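Protocol step 4 of 5: obtain the predicted structure for the target chain.
Materials: sequence only (see below). No template structures provided, no constraints applied. The aim of this step is simply to have a reference model before the mutagenesis design in step 5. Sequence pasted as it appears in the construct record:
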Amino acid sequence: MSWLSILNARNLKRGAKMLPHYLIEGSNVQEESLKRIVKGVKNAEGKYSGGVGYKNFGKSFKTSLLDAENASQVAYAANGGSALKYIKNSFKQIPGELATGWKTGGAAVAKDAGRLAKLGGSFKGLGKAIGKRMPFIGTAIYALTTLPNIFRATKEAGVVTGAGEVLKTVGSMAGFTVGCVIGNVVFPGLGGLIGGLIGGFVADKIVGKSYTEKKAELQQQALVQAQQAVPQGHMDTGSTNPFAAGLTPEQQYQLAMLQQQYGPTVRM
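Step 4 output (structure tokens):
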């Protein structure tokens, strides 16, 4: 089965259905499954054995993805079959999970240990709780950073364009998350970040540039074309115009249009 064979309507529908769970915690399920398949079981010494290795990695990846899909079905079933209810409950569970991690981390330290040791244990427990929810936290942070672009696209170009930006954002998040999974398996630790950046970069190339990026490029192109079409005496947007200092390309473009309309910049 080739990679292109998964890009059919049925599989895309399955992927869309499992995506909310995947971005929240399903990637953890896939990562553990992929490690078990590729590397095997981790022993007391921290070494893996029994894995199939990186041969036929594509097949191993698909198998682990099926495990993540099964986990999403279980998670949705526990929430009445509703993905929205699952997302809502996941938000509610995070504060309690962090609090539990803090308490259990401190409790794991010996009773006769000092306050500093107990505090270190609490932070360790909190770190584990955060690590477990890191896909969800990372997804939420990324989504928040893209909201201005989505709002701008919706306001200026309509609901359809705004919806398209939402799909682009989801695609980029999925690419980043998949990259993190592969990176953490191949090269634990730093590999997750590197893999995420590569996955996000590839996804961005596939979904295309955001509305804000495209608009900025069009404005810059229009500014360059206007500068080339009009003599410098009628359009001075940077080098000698004192009012252009520190302006963005969009503001320079607006200034240039005003100069073209009302006449050349006055020079002393």
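Step 4 remarks: The mean pLDDT is 81. The chain is about 75% helix and 0% strand.
Proceed to step 5.
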